[in-house]
Description:
The chain is an alpha/beta fold. It contains 14 helices and 16 strands. The chain has 2 domains: 96 residues, Golgi alpha-mannosidase II (Immunoglobulin-like), CATH 2.60.40; 291 residues, TIM Barrel (Alpha-Beta Barrel). The longest helix has 15 residues.
Amino acid sequence: xxxxxxxxxxxxxxxxxxxxxxxxxxxxxxxxxxxxxxxxxxxxxxxxxxxxxxxxxxxxxxxxxxxxxxxxxxxxxxxxxxxxxxxxxxxxxxxxxxxxxxxxxxxxxxxxxxxxxxxxxxxxxxxxxxxxxxxxxxxxxxxxxxxxxxxxxxxxxxxxxxxxxxxxxxxxxxxxxxxxxxxxxxxxxxxxxxxxxxxxxxxxxxxxxxxxxxxxxxxxxxxxxxxxxxxxxxxxxxxxxxxxxxxxxxxxxxxxxxxxxxxxxxxxxxxxxxxxxxxxxxxxxxxxxxxxxxxxxxxxxxxxxxxxxxxxxxxxxxxxxxxxxxxxxxxxxxxxxxxxxxxxxxxxxxxxxxxxxxxxxxxxxxxxxxxxxxxxxxxxxxxxxxxxxxxxxxxxxxxxxxxxxxxx
Length: 408
Ligand SMILES: *[C@@H]1O[C@H](CO)[C@@H](O)[C@H](O)[C@H]1NC(C)=O
Ligand SMILES: *[C@@H]1O[C@H](CO)[C@@H](O)[C@H](O)[C@H]1NC(C)=O
Ligand SMILES: *[C@@H]1O[C@H](CO)[C@@H](O)[C@H](O)[C@H]1NC(C)=O
């Protein structure tokens, strides 16, 4: 039984806040921002698709939207470039350069623009000889590339792992880039994909990953679909004994981008992604079109009470405590003995089903010692009020939807 197994094996570990993360003072709470990949991928044809190609213009427009439409105010601060920004060759001094047609001002000019608007700039590179899309990779140039990014004013690096041939040195490569970034003296968040690639041939030491990376990907790229969301959740739960203890201020498991506001998720599924990414203390990197996003998805992504669960300063990653009867129950310890609790209905037929939530089913019963106050945050706000230790609550949960509660 999931619950008992979890309690006996790993409960003790979770009493402690996360182990110390990468000591660069950054990402003390999960990074929030926007990342181009899932929505815009590697569209480089600016003739046929001028408004959606990977270009300076796209990032400037997103920066404008982040400022004018409340995203920055809501906490989304990092505007992040993914693959396909590069020219096909390094310059005569072996430095990386942006595609001269699509980024005529270069990355420095874009960074200045982004900083002027109060945002921070993220960029992408790869451990191997080529990026995943085939542009020049960083292998052999970690120090030069780290310095180039620092010179341009970059604030975050996503470091992929395609085309890396010396698998036995993969982990050393990720460590080397972390050291190279540190040596530049610039504050650069390091988002790595070490476990995603290393897991294929070795047992990953997550404690060590957390000492070198501010966040790390464990699983394949997310897609704009409910199937993909479910896979990420089930994968994370299956590995939670390893993943959860590694997370904490400065160091986060990254289940990949938020796809809310795109094409593939129903409203209830969008609620599930937002609730669970908050419970998992995941980086909140949206990949959507901020120039064209509906008000309901916007309100969900900007919900301050839900974001507060994700950004809780304790920095504890939530975990699944129960799976049964087609329900998943997760909880996340919060500052001051509070708890966030989510219930997802995994039955994809019929209407809303009632889940009986009682204190006994929760693992961490610290809240409610005398009495606790229960607030539902999603799918809509509702105050259930005060309950004592013997509370039980009947929660209606829509198919593929989630109820997110806060217990104070
Ligand atoms: C890591 O850096 C060390 C010291 O500079 C170097 O000897 C080693 O070859 C590097 N390894 C990789 C995989 O980059
Ligand atoms: C570099 O690492 C040291 C020691 O871990 C840390 O104190 C310092 O803040 C880091 N500097 C940067 C710029 O990341
Ligand atoms: C994992 O890494 C940590 C930190 O580098 C180290 O202290 C620990 O011994 C490692 N664990 C194993 C099983 O190698």
